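Appendix C: a fully annotated inverse folding record. The material below is reproduced so that readers can follow the format used throughout the book. The structure is listed first as tokens, followed by the designed sequence.
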């Protein structure tokens, strides 16, 4: 009898243990549905994340650099100044989508043995095959893949709220979401006030002799979204979806004659110098008025490349540069705020001067904002040499004659 009683007690204890073990196991995992409808079973606390590409790498860093256990691509020397050395030294797991796709399922499986990856994070525009693609690589690797939409500027506030839930980083993601939502609201009001009185501009990606590459306009120009929003982009509707831009001739540029020219950054300032020093460009209004600027870079270009949350900096910068009476704030303060929040980096005044060496009106101090007088942004800059101006005018006249 005692033996039977003891056996029953043993069974009851086993049932209770199994029950409470099930509760404990349930508490250690949770369900999350990503932005392409994939249901994932995830750890309650995500501590080890691998970005699947450059956009994910930028956005994940803004949430919490400590989450990284790998990076999608190595940082350049120019970027390292702003990046946590621990993150910069992590192994490279590659990029899943895009022309530079290098992510290999077998390598992910091998790396996961050492890294213990909780999640591979993909961020960007949802492709038609994304659900199937992510299901396939997740099945191959045994590692969770999650996708969060962040394509257009309007996607950014909501995407951070989704990331807060996904990564259990609600507090930081709420800050980032609120910041971007407030910024977009500020610009919606400001651009409504500006109305049709937008400054015209071109964004020069590169210059190669008579060939000039511009970021195109149009609703499908992902790389040109900020340009199209805050200015009259004189480039035609974008043909290429890449950040390399579409090809134009010097004759095309002379006919556009924009108010402002923004030039993509390069280490030697080659494209900026080509525009400022070449006789071919001197007849343009933007050059004569000194309204030629090179986009700041560090750790990413403010204009894009890749086009992620770093584009918010171009809004802050160009909004005040073009329309100082409407976007009346101290650019330096706003840039420092952004770097602290998104890059976890406190900019010094020297850092800021270096970043914006070719991006501020002449005579603007390292602590000042763009001029609010409505006059030429480079009013204090030395005018182009007379021979260059005359040569440029000669080119324009010759082109005009040929066009007839």
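Designed amino acids, in order:
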């Amino acid at each position: 009898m005692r033996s039977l009683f003891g056996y029953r007690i043993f069974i009851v204890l086993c049932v209770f243990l199994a029950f409470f073990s099930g509760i404990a196991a349930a508490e250690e995992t949770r369900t999350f549905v990503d932005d392409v409808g994939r249901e994932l079973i995830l750890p309650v606390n995500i501590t080890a994340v691998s970005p699947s590409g450059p956009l994910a790498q930028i956005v994940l860093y803004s949430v919490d650099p400590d989450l990284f256990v790998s990076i999608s691509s190595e940082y350049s020397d120019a970027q390292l100044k702003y990046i946590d050395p621990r993150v910069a030294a992590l192994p490279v797991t590659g990029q899943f989508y895009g022309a530079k796709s290098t992510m290999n399922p077998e390598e992910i499986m091998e790396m996961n043995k050492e890294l213990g990856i909780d999640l591979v994070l993909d961020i960007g525009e949802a492709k038609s095959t994304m659900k199937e693609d992510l299901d396939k690589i997740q099945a191959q690797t045994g590692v969770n893949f999650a996708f969060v939409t962040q394509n257009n500027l309007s996607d950014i506030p909501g995407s951070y709220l989704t990331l807060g839930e996904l990564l259990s980083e609600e507090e930081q993601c709420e800050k980032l979401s609120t910041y971007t939502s407030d910024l977009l609201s500020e610009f919606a009001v400001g651009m409504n006030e500006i109305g049709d009185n937008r400054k015209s501009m071109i964004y020069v990606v590169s210059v190669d002799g008579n060939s000039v590459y511009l970021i195109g306009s149009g609703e499908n120009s992902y790389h040109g979204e900020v340009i199209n929003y805050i200015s009259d982009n004189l480039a035609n509707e974008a043909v290429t979806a890449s950040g390399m831009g579409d090809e134009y001739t010097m004759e095309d540029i002379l006919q556009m004659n924009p108010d402002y020219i923004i030039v993509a950054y390069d280490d030697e300032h080659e494209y900026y110098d080509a525009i400022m020093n070449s006789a071919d460009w001197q007849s343009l209004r933007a050059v004569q008025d000194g309204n030629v600027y090179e986009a700041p870079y560090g750790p990413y270009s403010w204009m894009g490349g890749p086009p992620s949350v770093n584009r918010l900096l171009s809004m802050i910068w160009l909004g005040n540069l073009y329309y100082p009476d409407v976007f009346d704030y101290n650019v330096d303060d706003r840039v420092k705020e952004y770097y602290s929040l998104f890059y976890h980096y406190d900019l010094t005044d020297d850092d800021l001067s270096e970043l914006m060496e070719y991006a501020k009106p002449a005579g603007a101090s390292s602590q000042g904002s763009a001029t609010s007088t409505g006059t030429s942004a480079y009013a204090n800059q030395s005018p182009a040499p007379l021979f260059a101006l005359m040569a440029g005018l000669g080119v324009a006249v010759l082109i005009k004659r040929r066009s007839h």
